[in-house]
Amino acid sequence: MADYRNPSPLARDAMAYVLAGGRGTRLMELTDRRAKPAVYFGGKSRIIDFALSNALNSGIRRISVATQYQAHSLIRHLQRGWNFLRTERNESFDVLPASQRVKEDMWYAGTADAVYQNMDIIEDYGPRYLVILAGDHIYKMDYEIMLRQHVDTGADVTVGCLEVPRMEATAFGVMHVDGRDRIMDFVEKPKDPPAIPDKPDTALASMGIYVFETKFLMEQLRRDAATEGSSRDFGKDIIPHIVKNGTAWAHRFTRSCVRSANEEVSYWRDVGTVDAYWKANIDLTDVTPQLDLYDRDWPIWTYAEITPPAKFVHDMDGRRGSAVSSLVSGDCIVSGGMLTRTLLSTGSRVHSYSELSEAVVLPYCTIGRGARLRKVVVDRGVNVPDGLIVGEDPEFDAKWFRRTADGVTLVTQLMVDKYLSSQ
């Protein structure tokens, strides 16, 4: 594991470029007012904090974030939580909104275009290596190890890859590799994914993480921009071209995944659906969760709000502020309510006689007296009215709220208002 306080030369010669412009439509109303990377996770963090923290902990001190869709919430978070990098220490942190730099009617056309349109800014800093990152996944990874492999193999591009069951790889870009993990072919969302040579039931799926020498990538981006019909995308255009005309190597996530003594698996999650988002948050309530947020050797940096401690009040039968197997963030007050396997984000209030079970409650929500919430995601700032019951009657849930096929119910303030206006 790299020591983020004493970074190695490779990390110091690298820039992390985070692609954070995606909407994340499968998260439904959670991304109506914010981009997917800005969605809250784990009580006090945002999804993007994981990629940014990985870069910082790996020793990378130059970071750029490309934003586009509904960027205000994300930009505000970055300004508040990530403004400690200093130019006088040869550090930098840039937020790069789509600004029609190429043409007045042209936003970022694809992931590669989001880098191409900011080439002059990147070249001004002069990093030797670029680590391209997706800003919307939950994982802990030491990018220094991937950088070292890139240099040692002499690759034109190194692609971060996950080992997944072969027939689950149909939703990914899949690497067909030889016995040394050199990429022989790249197939986007194949119906019959190629297997890993020594594991016939397993495939290598792209994580959307790429390492390039900056000079080489700039040449490829200029070539791609001049190519008619290109979609300006790394997975669809840039990587397949390099696989066919250069040298591309796969980097297996298991080699650089950061695990504390309490983590037994290489944890990576795409929380791109309401069901996956709910499950990843609820999994944190396990006695020993697969993702250790308490690892002091690899902290997840974020905007640290100044808040008072969480508080539990009342102590009588049926009206006791309590939480079992739950995460309760700062500035929360549980007043005579009961939490079970629940994640309560910053500044929320739970009133008397209410019951929350397997609930993911985002910041600054109020749960009214006698409310019962089961298997729900409650968006930021929602005022749940007294006595509302969600998660027990599928027909009621589907009528007024967003209920998924797996039985998770998403609750927003607009939905609550429509319900209340009907009463």
Automatic annotation (TrEMBL):
<keyword id="KW-0067">ATP-binding</keyword>
<dbReference type="InterPro" id="IPR023049">
    <property type="entry name" value="GlgC_bac"/>
</dbReference>
<dbReference type="InterPro" id="IPR029044">
    <property type="entry name" value="Nucleotide-diphossugar_trans"/>
</dbReference>
<feature type="binding site">
    <location>
        <begin position="188"/>
        <end position="189"/>
    </location>
    <ligand>
        <name>alpha-D-glucose 1-phosphate</name>
    </ligand>
</feature>
<keyword id="KW-0321">Glycogen metabolism</keyword>
<keyword id="KW-0547">Nucleotide-binding</keyword>
<dbReference type="InterPro" id="IPR056818">
    <property type="entry name" value="GlmU/GlgC-like_hexapep"/>
</dbReference>
<dbReference type="InterPro" id="IPR005835">
    <property type="entry name" value="NTP_transferase_dom"/>
</dbReference>
<dbReference type="GO" id="GO:0005524">
    <property type="term" value="F:ATP binding"/>
</dbReference>
<comment type="similarity">
    <text>Belongs to the bacterial/plant glucose-1-phosphate adenylyltransferase family.</text>
</comment>
<feature type="binding site">
    <location>
        <position position="206"/>
    </location>
    <ligand>
        <name>alpha-D-glucose 1-phosphate</name>
    </ligand>
</feature>
<dbReference type="Pfam" id="PF00483">
    <property type="entry name" value="NTP_transferase"/>
</dbReference>
<feature type="site" description="Could play a key role in the communication between the regulatory and the substrate sites">
    <location>
        <position position="107"/>
    </location>
</feature>
<feature type="binding site">
    <location>
        <position position="108"/>
    </location>
    <ligand>
        <name>alpha-D-glucose 1-phosphate</name>
    </ligand>
</feature>
<feature type="binding site">
    <location>
        <position position="173"/>
    </location>
    <ligand>
        <name>alpha-D-glucose 1-phosphate</name>
    </ligand>
</feature>
<dbReference type="GO" id="GO:0008878">
    <property type="term" value="F:glucose-1-phosphate adenylyltransferase activity"/>
</dbReference>
<protein>
    <recommendedName>
        <fullName>Glucose-1-phosphate adenylyltransferase</fullName>
        <ecNumber>2.7.7.27</ecNumber>
    </recommendedName>
</protein>
<dbReference type="InterPro" id="IPR005836">
    <property type="entry name" value="ADP_Glu_pyroP_CS"/>
</dbReference>
<comment type="function">
    <text>Involved in the biosynthesis of ADP-glucose, a building block required for the elongation reactions to produce glycogen. Catalyzes the reaction between ATP and alpha-D-glucose 1-phosphate (G1P) to produce pyrophosphate and ADP-Glc.</text>
</comment>
<dbReference type="GO" id="GO:0005978">
    <property type="term" value="P:glycogen biosynthetic process"/>
</dbReference>
<comment type="pathway">
    <text>Glycan biosynthesis; glycogen biosynthesis.</text>
</comment>
<keyword id="KW-0119">Carbohydrate metabolism</keyword>
<comment type="subunit">
    <text>Homotetramer.</text>
</comment>
<dbReference type="InterPro" id="IPR011004">
    <property type="entry name" value="Trimer_LpxA-like_sf"/>
</dbReference>
<keyword id="KW-0808">Transferase</keyword>
<dbReference type="InterPro" id="IPR011831">
    <property type="entry name" value="ADP-Glc_PPase"/>
</dbReference>
<feature type="domain" description="Nucleotidyl transferase">
    <location>
        <begin position="17"/>
        <end position="285"/>
    </location>
</feature>
<feature type="site" description="Could play a key role in the communication between the regulatory and the substrate sites">
    <location>
        <position position="68"/>
    </location>
</feature>
<feature type="domain" description="Glucose-1-phosphate adenylyltransferase/Bifunctional protein GlmU-like C-terminal hexapeptide">
    <location>
        <begin position="308"/>
        <end position="411"/>
    </location>
</feature>
<keyword id="KW-0548">Nucleotidyltransferase</keyword>
<keyword id="KW-0320">Glycogen biosynthesis</keyword>
<dbReference type="Pfam" id="PF24894">
    <property type="entry name" value="Hexapep_GlmU"/>
</dbReference>
